[in-house]
Amino acid sequence: MKPEATTSSSNNLFDPNSYPVVPAKTFEDLRIGDVFRAPSRTLTDAHSSAFQTVSCDNHPVHYDVEWARRHGHTAPVVHGLQVLAFTAPGATLFPHYIGEVFISFNEVSCQFLKEVHSGDTLYPILEITDLIPQGDTGVVVTAATVHNQRGELVLSGQHKYLLRAHSI
Description:
With about 170 residues, this protein is α+β, with helices and mostly antiparallel strands. It contains 4 helices and 6 strands, in the order E-E-H-H-H-H-E-E-E-E.
């Protein structure tokens, strides 16, 4: 771990490179079962509108209340990819722990298990399920889950990241 950033009235030294959010880890420091939570988020219509703009997904199930009801939904459905985006490693402290050894985000998969609607609060979690050493690198496999405010699992998936085995 790098030394703490220091400042004092006498020397005014501050090194931004010595300002870790959390203590840095290497691939070898990670453990199966380590959990990285993202802050909970209550979705609003503004979130859905912003995602619709960015994704260009204009299917009426996402914004037309009457269309959604005619097709068996209680309300417009939040975009599945938007729910998946809440599992992005950067939404958690994970990249702060592995920032110096991170190489790439290699793979993502998921299943959408329940509908998400505006007003739902989501609780994303990444949990390390496997660590695969590969010489100078290693693959970290995480389970990516999102629950809603009722405790229902709305998304279940997996991420894979490639890390250097040792810090630079």
